[in-house]
Amino acid sequence: MNGAPLVVALVGTDHHPFDRLVSWMDDAARRRPNVRFVVQHGTTRAPSVAEGRAFLGHDDLQDLLRRADVVVCHGGPGTITDAREAGHRPLCVPRDPAFGEHVDGHQLRFARTVGDAGVVKVVAQAAELATELDLRLTSRTRTGEVESATVARDAARAALAAELDELLRVRPLRRVRLRRAS
């Protein structure tokens, strides 16, 4: 599909399956045969319609992001920052622990924070993703909503710092009296 619009979806490298996003991307590819879909699927099952790549080296990832018309990603700060630095406001589908996609809700919280700051567009449903893909593929403007990668990176760093502060908040330790073995 030389010259076809390119949609790149990134699930990251976490070992938890992210079948929901891969399935959504297969559905999107099935409905848009004139669009090339590349899905980095990690340890999740490979897509059956979209082109699949388990993992991408840094240079390959950067090249795909530069060439992409639309980027869809999980809620990881590194992936979001890479997409922003390539000029995208990614569609973000955070991993949800309720579906076994991660150990806790940190991606949901992080995505909400950077979504509220305009860094990403958070997508929670397959129908919403389809609508957003159509809007972006029709306009084919990747940078229209992107202020600058520096602003995005700073917002993502601030959100990550707040999330880490919450996760690492020191709680008072209880002293435990140990008994000696007799």
UniProtKB/TrEMBL annotation:
Residues 34-150 form the Glycosyl transferase family 28 C-terminal domain. InterPro entries: Glyco_trans_28_C. Keywords: Transferase. GO terms for molecular function: hexosyltransferase activity. It holds the Pfam family Glyco_tran_28_C. This is Glycosyl transferase family 28. It comes from Nocardioides anomalus.
